[in-house]
Design brief:
Helix 3 runs antiparallel to helix 4 and helix 4 runs antiparallel to helix 5. The chain is an all-alpha fold. The model has no long low-confidence stretch (mean pLDDT 87). The protein folds into two domains: 68 residues; 83 residues, no CATH class.
Length: 157
């Protein structure tokens, strides 16, 4: 897929503006000069600068209208199935993780995506299990990210 600088600049302008504006709704930390809004605001401001630079570059190059040209892979069924599966995995995780817990949900999603990509079952099972447990340990124990722990296997961690 190819997009010209005008289209990329417009998309970046909208997304960065949304991040920047949304960061104003975050609550500040009492007694601190910075808070939960600091990093999103900085990322949004940087994105706005990049967007303006892209739009200026496009105008200097004489581009007039945003243009998008789709690559050949966008017409392949297997590629579109993989793209839909990845989006479905994100939606499935959001819907199921609180009910089933992180570990079973992540394991099933990883296993499903690996099998969709034609990974042999005997390789996919241990890889999905190892990746799930590694992510759970790194994020849940080391970084203290609150992962969903409800579900049948929550007694394990």
């Amino acid at each position: 897929m190819k997009a010209n600088a005008m289209l990329l600049g417009l998309v970046m302008l909208v997304l960065s503006g949304a991040v920047f504006l949304a960061s104003w709704t975050f609550s500040p930390l009492p007694g601190q000069a910075y808070g939960s809004d600091t990093m999103p605001r900085a990322v949004g401001a940087f994105g706005l600068c990049v967007a303006v630079a892209l739009l200026l570059q496009a105008a200097a190059a004489g581009e007039r209208l945003p243009r998008l040209a789709l690559s050949g892979w966008t017409r392949e069924r297997r590629a579109l199935t993989g793209l839909a599966a990845a989006a479905g995995a994100v939606i499935g995780y959001c819907l199921l993780s609180d009910l089933a817990g992180f570990v079973p949900t992540a394991f099933l999603i990883l296993l499903g995506l690996m099998l969709l990509q034609r990974t042999p079952v005997l390789a996919a099972l241990p890889l999905a299990a190892a990746a799930t447990l590694a992510v759970q340990q790194i994020f849940g124990r080391l970084l203290l990210v609150p992962l969903p722990q409800s579900g049948l296997l929550s007694f394990l961690w």
